[in-house]
């Protein structure tokens, strides 16, 4: 993965809402999710969702297909794995396997974590 692509991907994922969208799409797998369902699950208005999906598309982290009148968004697993590979290529003296827990090899899902959200007082 090129350094400029890594920077674009990390910049896109550095925003809370985009990270939440990407994680939801990763959990959905290759089937993806309709845009409306993403918005419903995350409580996002359609204009806000559209903006963030566009940013993730520009970073090559998501793609979409049209099914009738619906847009189905999917995570780009190759890009995700390329990003992980770039970030870990020199870890543990070049022995990446020694650095990763067994469940993190490739695209195996890790333990579920709660999404961090800022709580309003």
TrEMBL record:
Superkingdom of origin organism: Bacteria
Spans through the membrane: none
HTH arsR-type domain: residues covered: 1-95
InterPro entries according to UniProt: ArsR-like_HTH (IPR011991), HTH_ArsR_DNA-bd_dom (IPR001845), Metal_resp_trans_reg (IPR051011), WH-like_DNA-bd_sf (IPR036388), WH_DNA-bd_sf (IPR036390)
Pfam family, one: HTH_20
PROSITE patterns: HTH_ARSR_2
Keywords recorded for this protein, A-Z: DNA-binding, Transcription, Transcription regulation
Entries under PANTHER family matching the protein: ARSENICAL RESISTANCE OPERON REPRESSOR ARSR-RELATED
Protein name: Helix-turn-helix transcriptional regulator
Organism: Plastoroseomonas hellenica
